[in-house]
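FIELD: query
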Amino acid sequence: MNKTLPILCAIFLLHNNMLYCKKQKKIVSLDTDKMHCLAKAYRSYISKITKNHTTGKIYFYMTNGQVIPWQDNPNKTFQEKLVSSSLADIVSEDYPVNKDILNAPHLNYDPGRFRNSAFFQSIYGSTLSAVKKNLVEVPWLPGTMKQLSKKPIHLLFNKENGAAAALEKVSQTLDRLPSSFKKYVLSPAGTFAWRNIAGTNRYSPHSYGIAIDISTTYSNYWRWDHQDNLDNKYVKYQNKIPEKIVSIFENNGFIWGGRWYHYDTMHFEYRPEFFCKKPIKASVAAPVTDLVKTKSGSAFCPKPAN
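FIELD: result
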């Protein structure tokens, strides 16, 4: 390996105010843990992350050419975050991974409902035809279907960023559950559907093929349960989905709509950014020759592979 490459990369970072450059699809240290987790979860689709010395603004450069600011207005209301989410808004609420599902979420606590369309379209497809090219069939509970002499079910899901592979792992694990759990997942309501979220003009994650709705028979949805209260004044939490099923999805990178104040208990969505381990500090993880101190903090460029 050329030993001058790390030094040259550090000079390049200093000159371009760069916080991350893509060499081995590895991110070691960014401004915040949440920024690190978002970048780590979608690192194959991010070419670089930069910080402007003058304004302090941070930008994500996507591999499809999109340039997306990390933050716009840090003082948005809940509704403003829903309508126009920044990248920082996406991860502004911590998702309670594998926590007790008996506790009702507090007012407007909806981790994962803030979605930046430009960002997710850069990963999964920006048009109907682009998304369709990324869809693959995932066999759903094949063992159970065979055992019950039912027609096989194949669900369309996006192959990008490991989404379809994650759903297949979910299917395989659910397939091994005792029969008492099968009624909740045996007849899924759908995965891919090019449509808006109900009551909005925003694309649903179903449009990108990264969400699945399990059986509606045993599910609760706040808009169904509170037809007379759609102005969000008060939502009484309801749920029938067992914790065992929720855990299987969460263990494979899916968030659950039952964790939301505006609950949607049939809804599971592939969002790996919420399942990020605490990042390793650059000063510990990388040799000093790979780091350069800039006005924006430590910048890091991984060594190229041998």
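FIELD: remark
Residues 33 and 279 are 7 Å apart (CA to CA).
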